[in-house]
Amino acid sequence: MIALNKTIRLFLDSIGRRDEYEFYLNKFHSDPTACFALLCPDAGSIEAGAEVLAFDLHFLLRLELVPAILLSGPDAMAMQRTLATEPIFIFQTLEKGTTAPFIEHARSQEKVPVLVAPQMELEDALLQLLPETARRVHFIRAGGGLKNAAGELIPYIYTHRGNDQVLEPLSFDYPALGKKLLEERPGVHLSITSPINLLEEIFTVKGAGTLFRKGSEISHFQGLEKADRGRLLGLLETAFGKKLADTAFLENVAHAYIEQNYRGAVLLEEHAAGLYLSKFAVGREARGEGLALELWREVQKNHGALFWRSNEANPFNSWYHTQSDGHHHAGKWQIYWRGVDPAAISGIIEYSCAREEDFAG
Questions:
Q1: What pLDDT band is residue 248 in, cutting at 50, 70 and 90?
Q2: Residue 162 confidence (pLDDT) above 70
Q3: Which phi and psi (to 5°) does residue 139 adopt?
């Protein structure tokens, strides 16, 4: 990773957690594509936030990250004229075979390359550029991420599943475009945010907008006889960042919910008061994609009473608070429960605190 001076470090610290932004910096710098992301602003975001966008892009250049901006459709020339007032931008018409050299030239000049395609719809332009130019696309609009009818942010849109929320009225059908791109260019990252939240969207797991995903395939195993234990153990150690001291706990797993590529898993054990959530693991590459929520929904759909413990320093605890009926702090543990008979709560607290740790150190 590049050396970060004190000023840059302080600014990144104001955006999000250090382990998160360092993870993304390493990921972006190791990406072999021409630029680390394509930014697709709409006319409203350019009119209202060109200066904010320019500030964020100056910062990205200081991190040695070069994005490319894509302007397409009938508003492209007007957006170009607005951006041209900021000296950080350099422009070129989108033409096949010239994009990579143009981006490299912009990089050498410490400028942000802007690809202009007034005769192309956004979908056609992106299909031409993905995934060689970039594998990440951030749509930028003045209103930020997509909202439901009540005006609440929708963190994830699952393009290949039925979404149970009614969307706000949209002047552009972003969900339809997201579905098309994920079908035609599998593996690309697509999100939508506002100019003011762009850096938080880029450098934090939680993000600050709406992420488009196909939706995961999650298998439900009764026990682990049919699961790939090697891949599961690899996921657990990667997700928790520790080596397992003992794998005997796997013999007690009664239910396992595992994403098809072993990027996330929930392991449950039988208990008289309900099911004990032994492990909830999501690999680092999958964090921020909504996989944890998908796994949790599968568990909720099939099981009632649940309880689990979490280290008091776990940043996930704020989410656990919202998912539980109650919690209790005991030593270094937070014990949570959901759907558990009140008469059994003291027993599950004692049981949770008495369990041995499965990870070394």
A1: confident
A2: no
A3: -75, 140
Q: What is the pLDDT of residue 1?
A: 56
At which residue do the structure tokens 């039925």 appear? 162
Long-range contacts at 129-133 (CB < 8 A, ≥ 24 apart): 129/38, 129/70, 129/94, 129/99, 130/38, 130/181, 130/185, 130/188, 131/33, 131/185, 131/187, 131/188, 132/33, 132/34, 132/100, 133/33, 133/34, 133/35, 133/38, 133/68, 133/99, 133/100, 133/103
Tokens 């009664």 belong to residue: 254
pLDDT(180) > 80: yes
Instruction: Read off the tokens for 94.
Output: 């989108």
Which residue type is seen at 95?
A: E
Assigned CATH for 6-213: 3.40.1160.10
* pTM (two decimals): 0.80
Task: For residues 95 and 221, give the distance between their C-alpha atoms in angstroms, rounded to a whole number.
Answer: 50
Give the position of tokens 């981006």: 103
- Are 6-213 and 218-354 the same fold in CATH? no
Query: E-assigned strands of 166-324?
Result: 189-193, 210-213, 218-222, 253-259, 264-271, 274-282, 306-311
Please state, in angstroms and rounded to a whole number, the distance separating the CA atoms of residues 145 and 168.
11
Given a cut of 90, whether residue 337 has pLDDT beyond it is yes
Domain boundaries, the chain: 6-213, 218-354
Which CATH architecture is the domain 218-354 placed in? 3-Layer(aba) Sandwich (3.40)
- Among 315, 300, 234, smallest CA distance to 268 is for 300
Q: In the Cβ-directed half-sphere of 191, how many Cα atoms lie within 13 Å?
A: 30
Do the strands 326-330 and 333-338 form a parallel or antiparallel pair, or are they unpaired? antiparallel
19: left (phi over 0), alpha (psi -120 to 50) or beta: alpha
Question: How far is 40 from 76, CA to CA, in rounded Å?
Answer: 11
Mean pLDDT value of segment 69-79 = 96
Query: Where is average pLDDT lowest: 65-69, 206-210, 266-270, 282-286?
Result: 282-286
Structural contact between residues 40 and 136, judged by C-beta atoms closer than 8 angstroms: no
